[in-house]
Specification:
The relative contact order is 0.18. By secondary structure, the protein is α+β, with helices and mostly antiparallel strands. It is built from 10 helices and 19 strands. Strands 3, 5, 6, 8, 10, 11 and 13 form a 7-stranded antiparallel beta sheet that branches.
Length: about 400
Amino acid sequence: MRLIHSCLLFMILVFGLTVRAQNQPTVVDSLSGHKQKLEHLFQYKKVTSDHLEVLQIGDSHIQPGVMTDPLAFLLQKEFGDGGYGLAFPYQVAQTNGHGSYQTFSNMTWNTAKVIQENPNLPIGISGYTISNASPEATITWEFDSLVGGNEVQWVKIFHASIIDSNFHYQLVNDKNETAQRIASLSNTHTTVFYFAHPTYVFELRHEQFYEKQKSSTIYGVYVANDQKGARISSVGVNGATYKHYAQNIDFRNQVESIKPDLVILSLGTNEAFQSNFDDTLFFDEVLNLVQMIQSIESHPLVILTTPPAVSIRKSNGNKGYYAPNPTVPRVRDVIIDVANRLEIPVYDLYAAMGGANSMKNWSQLGMTDKRQIHFSPKGYKILGESMAKAFQVHIPFAVQK
């Protein structure tokens, strides 16, 4: 009986593990290229205990922040938690945003974004811009207090010029404490505030000192705690391409101001849906953005990622179905080619998730949307974890789980 009972337990265990494995897509380490540059950066930060600034730039895959979260968790575990980083008020701009904080306003704001051919507002570091003509307009940020490191003491606002027609700003927390404006760190286009006590909630208000001050135009908001460590920000805009970011000088200059050490470019999905996609032209667009980022004062290491193996809708008579997008492999090849020529690392997300036909498998596991272009939150988390694990092996003396 004991032998039979043991065999039954073994069969149940094996069956359970098999079912669990079938419900979890296989993801492999696909970081390649000149990985030693990443190792050197991490080693330097470990030895010096210096602040680590990371920025991931992308499209709709990156905008919700879910895919960046695992990397943020890893790097803040390894290098210390310096706070949240970029915290644009996405909900005020009437678009989807990060789950770690919520934003609210008492008024409706005008919105512009980097993908527009002729946006009615300049576009800065967030890829989105909001504007309001009322000095009574407010915006409130509420960060998740259950997440370590989310407390805020430093706030930097990127805005239109205050010597032109832009309002001045004031920040007040939920205890009615007013943040101090740090004049030595502020200028005509950025205002830096400091809260004497950490807070998870604060409200932005406006001050109108002169008659010519007519509106408030905000390009981005950057928050930090009072600790040295890693800050991992993400900028994502639905529909964005390499070209959209590369042709925007204000975006470049404001990214420069946060002094990134590492910039991850996660784009290419939207180019794969262009009917007139041209490999040579796309090569130049990728190269232009990489070189623009490399030109900023902090000279960050740039890492490219290939797009996921998304699908495209086709029809067979009256019946529609989804098949691998045939342009994605071409996009992937160009991105890898640029990375090799510039001798920078590349994370091959396309290969990591399983290659050409993998999106169908992810869809069957319930981890994509109906069109097999975007992933579920769980799917994005798995992809983000796979990239974080690929980075982890290049961190000296990495803390193991």
